[in-house]
Amino acid sequence: MGHVDRAREFVRDESRTKWHDESLWFVRAKRDDAADTVPDWEALRDEAATIKRDALSRLPDLWRQFETAATEAGAVVHWARDAEEHNQIVLDLLEERGFRRVVKSKSMLTEECGLNPFLEARGIEIIDTDLGERIVQLRNEPPSHIVMPAIHLKRSEVGKLFEKEMGAPVGLDDPDALTALARKDLRKRFIAAEAGITGVNFAVAETGSFVVVTNEGNADLGTALPSLHIACVGLEKIIPAPSDLAPFLRLLARSATGQPISAYTSHFRGPREAEDIGSPAPAMHIVIVDNGRSDLLAQPSFRDALACIRCGACLNTCPVYRRSGGHSYGTTIPGPIGSVLEPSRDPKAHAELPHACTLCGSCTNVCPVRVPLHHQLLTWRAHLAEGGHHPTRRRVAFGLAGRLFAHPRAYEILTKAGRRVARRLPTAWLDRLTSPWTEARTLPPIPARSFREQMRARARQATKGPR
Amino acid sequence: MRVALFVPCYVDQLRPQIGLATLDFLTAAGFEVDFQEEVICCGQPFLTAGETKRAAALGARFVDAFQHVDAIVTPSGSCAATLRRHLESLVAAPAAASVAAKTFELCEFITKESACPPLSRPFPHRVGLHASCHGLRELGLGTPTETRAATRIDPARELLSRIPELEITSLDRRDECCGFGGTFSVEEAAVSTRMGLDRLEDHGRGGAEIVTSTDVSCLLHLEGLSRRRTLPFEIFHIAEILAASALGHDLRASAEPR
Amino acid sequence: MSARDQILAALTRHPAPPVEPARPESRPEMPANPWSVLEERLAQNGGRLVHSHSGAWIDSVKWPCEFAELTHVYVAKNVPESSPTPPASQLSPTAHLSTLTSRGVGATAKAMRDLEPLEVTVLYADFAVAENGAVWHVPASALERTAALLAEHLIVLVPASSLVATLHHAYERIALAETRFGWFLSGPSKTADIEQSLVLGAHGPRTMQLVALES
Ligand code: SF4
After folding, report:
1. What is the pLDDT of residues A295-323, one digit of tens each?
2. CA-to-CA distance for A333 and A187, rounded, in angstroms?
3. What is the ipTM of this complex?
4. Could you give all domains of chain B from N- to C-terminal order, each with its CATH number?
5. Which of B9, C46, C74, C168 is the most buried (most CB within 10 A)?
């Protein structure tokens, strides 16, 4: 099953589709209001976009610089070529210390690497502490959105889940009460945790610092208590200097949720202060992950996608995403940016995704770092066609049409005959012949004469002169 | 000024009256209009389907046919957008750039040349204007709700607002995509349908009797949905409304098959 | 070849073309009414702004209950003393603060975990950022960080004279290379993960008051 089938399934539930669309449109509208409060919004996008592209042009230097500074600050830096290496490094860090209880704040990278199932299979309890992530973790499903992982669920569904998992009273669906339950449950886990894993929003080369942004404070709580902090960072997350953080932080929360800034914007540099006597010394380990990023960098048409700061704005504005739901994409990252990124990993498996798009271009306009998303999706279509990943029927149909349009005579004869037949057929037959266009649409009456024929008629009239 | 009219295949076959309205309106605006029978397609459907070579072949035909005219005008915003944005990268011929630059959507051209004939006949209808994504975001006709860059005029709105007694109705989402999207409309028919119906509902809330646009493909999609559900909308291309006001074209007569 | 060297080599093989960052000529200046901008932005994040005279902040903030009834309060060492004007409060705040502080504070991990029923944490921030409704705070210790997160209510004091216009100005003031941990705070801990409805107090504080101290 691909996007087409899953989307069709999702859309079948009309009221849920509309609810989903409205929820996300609400976030998009908040983003618009937030952008209105920033007088230099477009200039800021230019700046953020070019800082990222500058960084992408000198990744090796910046990461070396980061490594030196972070090491100086007392962190240990690891390098992982792919998901397996990443997962193994994390596992080793935990096993060396005999740690079994881990809390994790939101990180699309660990999602991409499949860290949770990997650790769980090895007897380690790993708890997602972001409420939305926790909800989908308990439901055993992937997030459907990169910022709002449980946006596809209704409160009653969360209520039912908490009934099963946290002993919530039957029928409880008040978000305040449900959040309070999760808070209580997670508080225990924070306090019991031996290690905290976080993602990284921005890594700063000059200082070896990194920034993690949350609204819940879960990344901070998850790293303030345990002695071990593991930060997992994708190669694209580096920026040169501290002052470069400003444009991104002015854009990020506003683009993501319409907030002026997230509640917690935490800057880490090295392990936390030692305060315990007799407990393990605090340690910070940073795992830098490639997992396909250097391959993407090697593709000039798509490397700009590495500038993405995972704000989710392109998902919220995408008229298709809003109506097909995040799970319809079948990928770690759904929506426009996912449809650009995922085919670079496996073009065959994700050949449908660049077509799950009307090329409306709204994503490109909201993107705070100006990833030319819809043009990249268009480029993907060409690459996929060339790579032979498109269905044969499409290629054949377009092959015939292409030849027809290059031969006006043949076009004339065939269309004329076509229209003549179409005008005689009963509507139901015609609809069947032109399905799937007519699956939900009715064809207009077919004109007897085409524009070209009418033009010729006009010309004949003109030469005959006025009557 | 000599202007070439480009009428793409689906207008030719399914909505010839839009081509005629465009032609007559341009003539009324004082242009000498040529029609080139030989060019049927700008290549857009091929480009968006990933069939770049075929798009390029059709683009080359386009450049060949039109390189010597002053301007090329089409009632299809998305064709104009395809040519303007992509022709140069598709076609190596040196004329490609200039052909791309002188291809215009009808309202864009009329506004640019300040050549609108008097829109004197009243059009006493509530009209919903559908912003075609390609016109809006690729040609820059109007200001998308996402952007905070300087406002740009929307020629279509500008022209409609000059017509006596025509009321442009409001929308909750004034530039949401209708869901046509070329092959998307058939490959992702379910989502495409939902998107189109949502647009029509929005137009309904605003009280539109007529839905119009600068793009024929969006309109064919919306019209098909409206017909299937017998919704109370009439769908006309903006050229038809302009020709009705400027020249007294009878909208409903021309909408019937001949 | 190590993973590190392989990755660095892979990145070198297909470098992206150099790009000069597009730096704007100027940054937005301080708005005419910076504190009301901050107040509005902070309110969007669920926080509340309070103006106070430096020596009397205890009287200016909203306490969850009678001040005298609070039992678990963490007050950062750098928080200035406050002497509320009687008869609004009959408290002798400094005395209270010191006793309350010592009650909440411990030096071991156990004590950190014992912060759990913490009612209020009071912090002193370096400066505030008008455009984002945020303050920059460098906790004195991981304990202080924890106290900021575990408390039901968070109060952050900041000198009114420290306000800057935007984050660009903010980073000019921050010495990140010397900062083990520092954060921008804006509003309480929150989530909207259930049907987009905003809930304050996701994991940490349910309320956040920012007190602008006039000296
Ligand atoms: S591509 Fe742009 S809009 Fe989409 S998530 Fe990334 S940064 Fe945000």
Report:
1. 999 999 999 999 999 999 999 999 999 99
2. 29
3. 0.96
4. 2-113 (3.40.50), 126-254 (3.40.50)
5. C74
